[in-house]
Amino acid sequence: MNLVSLTMLVILLVFGVVGLCMARKIRNGDSFYVMEEKAPTLFLVCGICMSYISAVTMSSGPGVCYENGPFLLLTTAQPGAWFGMLVAILFIGRKMKAIGCYTMPDYFAKRFSDNNVTCLALIIMVTVMEIYGIGQLVSIGTVLSEATGFSYGWIILIFTLAIMFFCVPGGTWGIMMTDTLMFVVVLVTAFVVCPVVIYNLYPEAVQRLPEAFWSVQGIHDMSTGYRISQTILWFTFFAGSPVIITRVFPAKNDFAVFKATVISVALIALISFLLYFTAGLMQGVEPGIVPQERVIFQAVRNHAPLILGLIGVAGILTAAISTASVLFCLAGFSISRDLHGLLNQKKTEDLNDLKRARIAQVFAIGIGGAVAYLQPTNSFDLSIFACGIFAASWLPTILMGLLWRRYNSTAAFYGMLSGALTLTILQVLMAVQEFSLPWNINPYIFSMVVSILVSVTITLRKPADPEDARRHYQIRNAQLSDAVIRETRTVPNALPRLFRGYYQAKRVMVGGVISVAGLLLLLCILFYSFIPAG
User: Fold this and answer.
1) pLDDT single digits (tens) 383-442
2) DSSP state at residue 226
3) Contact 11, 320 (CB under 8 A)
4) DSSP state letters, 281-322
5) What is the DSSP letter of 437?
6) Cα separation of 295 and 66, whole Å?
7) Mean local confidence (pLDDT), 345-352
8) What's CA 302's distance to the chain center, in Å?
9) Cα separation of 136 and 127, whole Å?
10) Degrees (nearest 5) of the Cα angle 320, 326, 329?
11) Shortest CA distance to 519 belongs to which of 275, 280, 265, 216?
């Protein structure tokens, strides 16, 4: 057993014990699903950041930067993803929390009151969450199988069991607590280990790479149209991501959501830059890393002191397993809550509710681990496909449901179905034969356009239903800020508390904007300082 495998086992054991201990926090379904809506700003920041900093950010994303150069991704996909997160949290997530959603399919049930729509949303939710989680496990197995001495199959088995300890006993409590501790490891990896690696690689790595490698077009000179399409694509990926949206549901109040959002996006921007710049430098020192997903792993192991290198390895582990645990947890929630709600219209709160929720967690995680064991494809393909399904089917339906009074359940059903089927068919055609859309139209954007056109056409052709308008009015007028005022009135010194929360949130938001502006300035300075003149 080497140091990497020992680090892996210790990390999983510690966090597994933490997840197990969270079982004592669970008293009822509210505490299992949404922590009784008591999550403070710290938990939300760590949860949002760890949802973003997944195996894609630690492995697949750096692999793309290693091949094409870091600034292509940093100036296209990343800004789109950051703005998508703002929409997901501040617009969609807050609205869903305001109407009492515990899971994403809850929104479809409340907005459309149609079992067919809810059932389709549930099928998409569970299926795609499983696919996405499988992608995370595949990435873990790919990166660690050689370094630890364990076979790929053993890695998958160990991590599947660890995720069960995170999710099954404590539900959202276990996820939030382990995410908070894991984020400390990721912060050290990004802000301590990566700068050390960059210092050790510079300037040798820069001198060995062509100037085009550091351009915003990348080494392959991508066109402006391609870069704009990537920005739009990643915006839609994150704006419709259940992993991001559902992080709002356990929030203590609206102030905590606003503060957490600004802090999270600022931290994510900094972490992404450090990781991707490190990956780009590695091309100049260690060209030919296969698979490219191992680039950050190779960087921290070969170009940082031993202790820092092991911390970096721990950061990669925690990023991947955190996202995988959230994905499987959400799939389990939908099975135990939404599927049971469809099958049993008499919803009663009893001891069996928690038992059913935990059994669903075991089932969702077990299925994901079993499929990941077969190593179906690389993690990036699975993750992108999963995000694309939500962008093509859910995002148009959610936004039109929130913004359009006349939008009805029939349009929602066929809009979601057409978007998901179109993307799936296109992906299959591209996988089995040489196929591309005319003018190189992106299949994800094309599928989303199909979903929108189908939804709009059906809505306009079907007579307006007063019930759809009534439900839309109720959701539109539900404000999360109203809950803050109601709760504040029940405590002593209500008005000073309210103003204190407001001014604190305002200071955090202003500070976050200044931090992001400073980051952009830093990027410009580093771009012109590190890159040699042609």
Assistant:
1) 777 778 888 888 999 999 999 888 999 999 999 999 999 988 888 887 777 777 776 777
2) H
3) no
4) HHHHHSTT-SSGGGHHHHHHHHSS-HHHHHHHHHHHHHHHHH
5) -
6) 7
7) 57
8) 29
9) 15
10) 135
11) 265
